[in-house]
Input
Amino acid sequence: MKHKMKANPFLRIFVFAVVLAIVLSALAIIIFYYIFAIPEPEGLSLASWPYRFTDNFSIWMKEEHGNLVIEDIGIDRLDEYQLWLQVLDENGKEIFSHNKPPDYPASYSASELAALGTSNYENGNTVFVSSYENSARKWSYLIGFPYDIGKHMLYYNGENVGRLGPVFRIAVGIAFVLLASSVFLYGFWLTGHLAKISKGIDDISNRSYAKLPEKGVFRGVYRELNQMDNKIHISDELQENTERTRREWISNITHDLKTPLSPIKGYAELLSLGSVPDSEIVREYGQIILKNANHAQRLMNELKLTYQLEAGVMPFRPQNISFIRFVRETVIDIVNDPAFLSRSIEFESSIEELSICVDADLLRRALGNLIVNALTHNPPETSITVSVNTDKTMQVTVIVRDNGSGMSEEQQSEVFNRYYRGTNTKEKPEGSGLGLAIAKQIVMLHGGEISVKSKQGEGTQFIVSLPYVN
Output
C-alpha cells in the first residue's frame, strides 16, 4: 500500500482527505459530547436531559383526595439517577421531599423559586424547577441533579434573523456554485494532466516522446517518464549495436565455415574424377581435406559450447586436481603445438603446489583460449608469460601476460562479447571470435572472475581469479 501511495498522488490525496474528514468528524463528536453531554447511570446524555426529566416528572404525579401522590416509578427513577425531590404547595411550603439535602430550606418565596430556575451549580447540585396542575390546584417541585449543568438563555433580534434567512440561502447557493465550479475546474485540470501523461506513455512506446518539464504537482510522474524514455533510448541503441555486431559475427562465422569447405569440395572433386595417379598426391589431398574438416568441426563445436554454457546445460564435473601441475601441462601442450613451435611462452608460479576443485576439461579450454588469443593477435616476436599466485582472500590467480601490440579501451570493453571479433587475425584467420567469450563463461561457471588490462603498444594481461579451500 505504501508503494502504491508513493506512485499515485491522487490516491495519496484521496486517502489524506478521507482520513482528515474522519478525524475532524471524530473530533467534532468528541467536542460536542465533552461540552454538551453529562454522565448518568445509563451512559452519557445531552445536557438538556435534566430539564426534560424535570418537566416530564409530573406524569408520575397525581391527586388523591386532595393530596398530591408520587407514583412509585417516579421514586424509583429518582433513586436510580441519585436525584432528590422537593414538592411545594401554592404558598411555597414543602409538603413532600425525597433524598433532599439538609441544607435546603422547607419553604421558598416566589422570588426564591424564580431564582432557582436560573441558579448555577451550588452545594454539589444543580436545581431545576417545574410545576404540576390539577383542577384548581397547582404544586411546584424542585429536582436536584448532582451535575454541574450550565443554564444560559440566548436572546436575539427576530426581525434581523428573519431578514438574514434569504441572505443565508443566497450564501449557501453561492457556496454551492463555487464548490461545483472548483470541482469542475479541478477535474478539467486533472484531465489535462492525465491526458498529457497518457500521451507521453503512448509517445514513449512509439519512440516519438518529447521531454516534459519536471514541475508542478506531477513533476515526479514527468521525471519518471523522462527517465523511462532515456532508458529506452539507451536500451534501443544497445540492442541495435548488439544486433549489428551479431549480424557481422554471423557473416564472419558463415565465411569461416565456407573457407574450409571450399578446399574440401575442390580436392574431393579432384579425387572423385580419378585423375590423380600418384598415391602421394592423393595422401596430400586427403590431409588437406582432413585438416579443413577438423577446422570446420572446431568452429561448430565452439559455437555449440558457447550456447550450452549460456543456457546452463553444459555438463559440469568438478574434482580436486593439482592446480600448478595442471596449468604447467596446459602451457606445455600449447608450446608443443606445431603452429606455435617458434613462439616464446614461459610459465611462472609463486607456490609449489595447490589443490583446487575444478572441471579440468572446461578450465583447460578457458586457459588455452587465453594463451592462444595472445599468440594469435600479436606479432611473432611477442613473448607470453603465464604466472600463478595466491592471496589472503583464498583466491588463486592465473595471469596471461604478453608484451604485444595491446588493445584500445573500446576493444577491452568488447573483448568478452561473443559477437565481437578482434581485427588483428592475420596470424590465425580461421578463428571464430568465440574464444574469450567461452573463457569468461567457463571462469564464471567456476565462481571466478576474469578481467583484462591493456595499453596499446605495451601489451595485454588477462587475470583469472578462482576460489579455493585449503
Summary: The first helix runs from residue 2 to 7. The longest strand covers residues 126-134.
